[in-house]
Amino acid sequence: MEIVFNEARGVLEVSNARIIFRNFSGVGSKYNREGDRNFALIIPNEDMRDTLLDNGWNVKTKPPREEGEEPFMYMPIKIKFNDRGPGIYLLSGNSHQRLNEDTVGMLDEIDIQSVDMDIRPYDWEVNDKTGRTAYLQAMNVTQNIDRFGAMYAEQERNM
What is the pLDDT of residues 85-109, one digit of tens each? Predict the structure, then answer.
């Protein structure tokens, strides 16, 4: 995974990301309010975590389960649809489509091969407390297609 802060655009550009806790559909649960769309970016090492923390990003760290393991680190990311985005694109075989508020929930269920994304910061202050929330600005998701799915997609394209 590679993370670069693009100062000109004011976003984190993440390539080859691994994501977890997917809730693109906004389903309510004991961990999530109904309607809140979000997911988390896995942070692969402590150096990257420290760099993100030093730059104000909200990275969660869980202690290692066993001695000698690295801690489990991730950054929560929120998704809010409005007239500016986010632009979320799904590449499935040879088909490429832009997902919207009604279709983005499919990302909760698919087998993901790779993810590239841009994350924008929102710095807030409430009652003398400050923080930074990460919001998805754009994302490209490549679906892992099994051989049968690829075969049927090829047949549909040739019809």
Answer: 899 999 998 889 999 999 999 999 9
Containing 114, the helix (H) or strand (E) segment is: strand 112-126
The DSSP result for 3-35, as a single string, is EEEETTTTEEEEES--EEEEETT---BTTB-TT
Pairing of strands 72-79, 129-143: parallel
Tokens, residue 151: 């075969």
Q: Which of 26, 35, 18, 37 is nearest to 77 (CA)?
A: 37
- The pTM score is 0.88
Q: Which domains are delineated in the chain?
A: 2-157 (2.40.50)
Q: Which residue has the tokens 């991730």?
A: 74
- 41 CB burial (10 A radius; 0-12, 13-18, 19+): buried
Phi, psi of 141 (to 5 degrees): -115, 130
pLDDT digits (tens, 9 = 90+) for 25-77: 999 998 889 999 999 999 999 999 999 999 999 999 999 889 888 899 999 99
